[in-house]
Amino acid sequence: MLIDRRKFLNTLLGLGGIGGILSVFYPVFSYLIPPKSSEPKVNSVKAGMNSAFPANSSKIIKFGRKPVILIKTEDNQYKALSASCTHLDCIVQYKQDTKQIWCACHNGTYDLNGRNLSGPPPKPLEEYDVKIVKDEIIITKAG
Amino acid sequence: MGKRFLYLSIYALCISFHSNLTAAGKNEGKGTIAVKEDHCYNCHKELGNLPKDYSDNDIHRHADISCSSCHGGDPTTDDDAVAMSKAKGFTGVPKKKEIPGLCGKCHSDIGIMRVFQPRIATDQVAQYYTSMHGKKLLTGDENVAECSSCHTAHQILPVKDPRSTVYKLNVPNTCNKCHGNLELMSKYNLPVNQLDEFTKSVHGQALLKNKDLGAPACNDCHGNHGAMPPGITSISHVCGICHVSNMEYFNSTRMAKAFEENDFHGCEQCHGYHGVQKPSDNMIGINPGSKCVDCHKTGDNGYEAARKIKESLVNLRTKYDLASSKLIEVKQKGMNDIDIGFLLQDAKQDLIQSRTLIHTFDAVKVGDKTKEGVGVSNKALMLSQKEIDEYYTRRNGFAAATVAFLLIVIGLYYKIKDKEKKGNK
Amino acid sequence: MKNILSKIISAIDERYDLTPIRNLLLHKKVPEHKHSIWYYMGGVTLFLFIVQLFTGILLLLYYRPGEDSAYESIRFIVTEVKFGWLIRNVHSWSANLLVLFAFMHMFSVFFSKAYEKPRELTWVSGFIILVLTLAFGFSGYLLPWNELSFFATKVGTDIVGIIPIIGEPMKVILRGGEDVTGATLSRFFGIHVAILPAILSLFLIMHLLFIQKQGMHEPDEFKKLPESQKKYIPFFPDFALKDLLLWVIVFNILIFLALYFPWELGNKADAFASAPKGIRPEWYFMFMFQTLKLLPAHLLFLEGELFGIMIFGAAGLVWMLIPFIKIKHREGWKFQPLTLIGILIVAFIVIMTILGYLL
Fold this sequence. Notes:
heterotrimer, B: about 425 residues, mainly alpha, 22 helices, C: about 350 residues, Cytochrome Bc1 Complex, Chain C, two-stranded antiparallel sheet, two-stranded antiparallel ribbon, 4 strands, about 70% helix
């Protein structure tokens, strides 16, 4: 080996050192950059704008892992309930004519308080709280 | 059968004491009477000859309705000659043919029933006489069911009480008492395998094994007091009570019309009745074993529709299965599976809805839904792949860092050795 | 590059007189003998503590204390923040390695009798640092707010409550109430990120100052050698390089553990759920936990558990004051009584820890 031992070792150390420092600082700097969903939002979920939500309609929202059905009644009241039917977990829907919640799988119905009215569902739907903050709809777990 | 004989013999014993064997007399004692003042009950209890099927939980007993309300006689006296006299309306054991009328004396009279239960129905007897049981009873058939056959005579419990013979979970066994009896049913050319079939069916499993009260028992399809097997026109409506979407889709098709014209049995034609199983994707399509090819031949419109529908379904199912197994891989690798799980739930919903849409027999409708599902499954696949890639990236990153550290370690080690050597010199 | 560096150094030297530092760097030396490997233990412990500080501060940027947010914020860190999984797992693993090396450091100091005069206070401050480190572990363990942490905290604080007279009030103050609740979480968070770091820094600085002032302890065999035969290596750069080498290796192992044996998220704590089966504390508390489990219900007139706690308390106190306890030297004994006691204690801890996992 015609390479000077000392220089070789220094180069080795230098390369290793830079590599080592990179493998520490690259993760740290990436960590500092805020991720796209900038906060863990499983306890409250934003569900759109109040003014853009028509009365007597509904939509399905993701709440963490759970589906939630958000309903705006005719008199502009909001109701948020678990959208998982308590019978066999199908996603329920809001019927604008009967103003009840209905499950297409086996004809289960619930009222707007989530109470199971008819058909197979054995239990009511879990309720969620709805707040309007500056025209934005925010759904949170029931207090 | 033997039990009935036992009851009759015990009654015969009582009757031999009292020798009053006349038919329906005036029904005295319609009012209520406290148990301890009811001499019918007290004497027979003392004598130890209360009816074999007697239970203190009996609903009539609970409502303080005396034995005399059905059997006549006078419960206020303990003089048995008076208590069980014809003059006091004592009728003893009612004849089978008389029973509906006997029960109906109260149960068909809303004026009486509203005292005890304002909302109770009072049409049971009327309905009963429209049923096969009722019709046959009127001709004098002693084998058919009357009120006490299902409700019992002396341990009647409300439908909602889990101990009742007519509680939902107990209904199949109650009906089976007669309908499972070969000797009895052969007289009418009726099968005896209904309970067997039902137990193996998806409804039976749900009701009897999983205790799901949302599942149907015999009376949900056949009716209670007016029990009849559903006629051809009613089958899809009966199934449609719970399976609404399927019924609505089916009834709007040309198939429904064709079925009616050909006397096909609606839902039952493809799905069976008592032994209905969870449907499989094999039932649709052009493969041998599918229901479609039972009627449709190669080249006709139905055949084509079946083929296309099956194709869409298989497409979605394969994609969904693939996405599910990828999700399992993500979970096993300990990576983030939350959003993927959500997408898969949507895809599963799409798959279920596609299968329901089969009943429109419209390949376009089914195809649109499966396309949705495939889109969602693809998204899930993409996300899963991202997570799995990240898993390997991390390990590769670590390997690279380790190489860097290894270089440092080797460099340092030799540097130290050199320094030591220099120090020794 | 070197020129700029030396220019800066001389500028500072002009203003602040860096002579003591220069002296330290040039003249500090470390004895070299067959047991000098143990000299590294303290350094590794310090290194791991620095790692904890660093990763802890990073976690602080995303962690949110509170019943409704703690668990979710950790899930967020581990799933959505870039390299969050790495920072969290390094923090958890480093905590455990830290305790392990702290114990190894303490026992190596004990067996080499480095605590003897003039280093008594170094030992005392070191023991206090160990206790603070265990407190760090206990308080930090609750912060993920999962089932395991919740019940471990419940059991741990219950044990505090057994101490007579002061036990109950202490327990209530620790818990921020009668039960373990979100209030407990807030307190433990404050303790973990503010109170303990402040106190520990104090004692750590004292500990390090003492060591710099007094230099490394030399074992008796070394001390007895004639001057010419005493081998020393300069701290800077020789020992420092060896230290660095070991730190790099430990760091690599740490990251390996973080990647291949990640810490679980667990299930979110539920005050109304029953304790999961096989609930037990972290391994460094296991020996005490197991001892308490094995003690009979009553000993003399005391409750078994209380007896156990008092024994541990007394033992800890005695252990801390070892430098001030004189035990007569026994002639002809292979191991002196104190050494024997030390061996027994290590054996006790190891056996009890193993039993805790087997039973």
